[in-house]
Write a structure and sequence with these properties.
Largest sheet: 6 strands, antiparallel
Shape: elongated
CATH topology of the largest domain: Rossmann fold
CATH superfamily of the largest domain: P-loop containing nucleotide triphosphate hydrolases
Protein name: AAA family ATPase
Keywords: Coiled coil
Strand content: 5-15%
Low-confidence stretches: 205-210, 261-268, 339-347
Radius of gyration: 39 Å
Organism: Bacillus salipaludis
Number of domains: 2
Amino acid sequence: MIIIKIAIGNDKEAFIEDRFVDGINLISSDDNNKGKTILIQGMMYALGNVPTFPVSFQYKDYYYIIEFTVNDTLYKICRYKEDFIVKTNNELRHFENTSEFRRYWDKIIFNLPQITKNNKNTIVHPELFLQLFFVGQDKKNTSTIANSGYYKKEDFINMLFRICGIENSMDITAIEKQKELLRNYNHERQLLLKQYKILSSKKKELTHFSTTNDRIQFKNNLEKIEKVNDSITELNKERNRNIARKIKCETAIREIISLNRDLDTGEIVCLSCGSIHIGYKTASKKGFAFDITTADIRKDIINSIHNKINDYEEEVERINISISDKQNILKDLLSVDEISLESLLLYKEDLFNAADADKKITDLDVKINEVKSELSNFETIKNSKAETEKELLAKILEMMNSIYKEQEPAGTLKFDNLFTKKSETYSGSEQTIFYLLKMYVFQKVTKHKYPIIVDSFRSEDLSTEREKIFLDLFNELENQIIFTTTLKVEEVGKYDREEFKFINHIDYSDHTPSSILRSEYKDSFNTILKDIMQ
């Protein structure tokens, strides 16, 4: 997408800018209020953005025209208030609002990303899409997107994922239909069980005649088996812990007993401090410590540890009994009871009457399992997509941090999200660096071919050295670049130097302040407008 011309005006005054090239375009002026922001905002407004003009500018009095090419097709768009007219070589189309215009854009110009909004998949409006490659001068807030209202920062991030090829494969409507189907099946099943209570009876004889009863009792029995088995596992872990503690105590006793300070050739000392006092410390993190250099203290400590060993042995024996009890319960649950013919015949008539319901419940169980399987697949896809999105976000942030450190090794910034927390913000030139890095990395990751537009790209006193770094960085891209800046007195003429020969410099310094629209442009503007209308 290459922007060729921007025109703003009416039958009294206008302005036309048609000096853009495919590479870097830098619009500068020697003072503020020379029309740079009006031009940029008019350009984005013509593309469907929400109006963000200065309060003093009566934007509803003017027409906004943009001409650009996509894949060698020339598009001419004119916006007046909420109406859009789009002209190509083949046709002329009129749209009464942005929603109609975005659908045309998606079908004819190029596909716009779709995101899930209010549980529906929807094509994003230009006001969100344009933020992929546009940063305005005013109302910047690093904690959220521009013009936050209907769209939130989560919507922008989701849009970014879609553009990067992570499909929005979660069909919310299909999922809700499956959930509703599951609720209906379960409700119908409960009604049948309530009507034919014999199908859910706990009498074991009924499992021989009823599939439903057999499955219910099997499920209940399985839950009991799993619960008992979990108890046995936990008891085994507890027994092992006590055995391990017992072994540690036995080891401690052997070490204390082996301590012999009555040596003919010397004595035991601490190698760190030289002290002859040797201690025993209890196992807890902030435990007690005892001096065991005397025989009486050693004896008391050993006796205390022996008591601990006895306690652990008693605990192990108690656990062994509990495990044995649980194992007996498990054997009973796994055993198969013999059922007499008389007891089966006792329920024959009741089960015969419930035969149809039994079959219906069996069929419902099959359908319920199919729906649960489908929902499980949805959940698996959702988790997989979430992991892929997490990896992509990490890649974007890693690239931002890497480029920043490469360009500014002593810098202290660290980017850990695409947006800051509400309580945090980047100040001064840090904010400018943050936005420029995002615009650059978004292009590198998405490979988009849209123009990158930053109004006042040196705002917040971006240093000359950093400015040159970013200009060189963006010059590596094949995208069209449109930057604006206000120069200090000593900087006037800098972009005409040899070091900036790769820049198409467009100078607005000779514009009258706050009067970019002039009567001498009105005839040319009306010619452009008439050409679109015909």
